[in-house]
Design a protein that fits this description.
By secondary structure, this protein is α+β, with helices and mostly antiparallel strands. The chain has a single domain, classed as TATA-Binding Protein (2-Layer Sandwich), CATH 3.30.310. Helices cover about 25% and strands about 25% of the residues. It contains two helices and five strands. A five-stranded antiparallel beta sheet has the order 2-3-4-1-5, with helices on one face. A hairpin with a 2-residue loop joins β2 and β3. α1 crosses α2. The radius of gyration is 13 Å and the shape is globular. The two termini are about 25 Å apart.
């Protein structure tokens, strides 16, 4: 990973609620959420309502839920990429459209989702 890459990723998620997304990701990650945040060592995963959500809007920037993944530890870069990829796949496999916005989209499956011809990708 490029040492100048920002260790942060925002995943926009459609067709789900904060509660359902937390339940899904809690099972995936093996940790619980407290006040919307789960901690995995030096990684943080937040699941929140998208303040920019617009009902019926098809642009992913306005989907109802955002999942934010970040770390302050430079050494966590590869784990952040792996965790983000796992989160995307879990959301897609649950039938939720999800698109990642981050500096490392190009190494994520389907370029973070934006590269998929259908959403969610059929071969997640």
């Amino acid at each position: 990973m490029n040492p100048h890459t920002d260790l942060y990723c925002k995943v926009f998620v459609g067709r789900t609620t904060e509660t359902d997304a937390r339940t899904l990701l809690s099972a995936l990650l093996g940790v619980g959420f407290s006040r919307g945040t789960a901690r995995l060592g030096d990684l943080f995963v937040d699941v929140r309502r998208n303040k920019e959500h617009v009902a019926g809007e098809t642009d992913f920037l306005f989907w109802p839920v955002v999942v934010e993944l970040d770390s302050e530890e430079r050494s966590a870069g590869e784990r952040l990429v792996e965790t983000t990829a796992a989160v995307l796949r879990a959301l897609w496999n649950a039938g939720c459209p999800a698109v990642a916005a981050c500096d490392f989209e190009d190494v994520l499956p389907w370029s973070g989702g934006i590269g998929s011809p259908v959403m969610p990708p059929e071969d997640a």
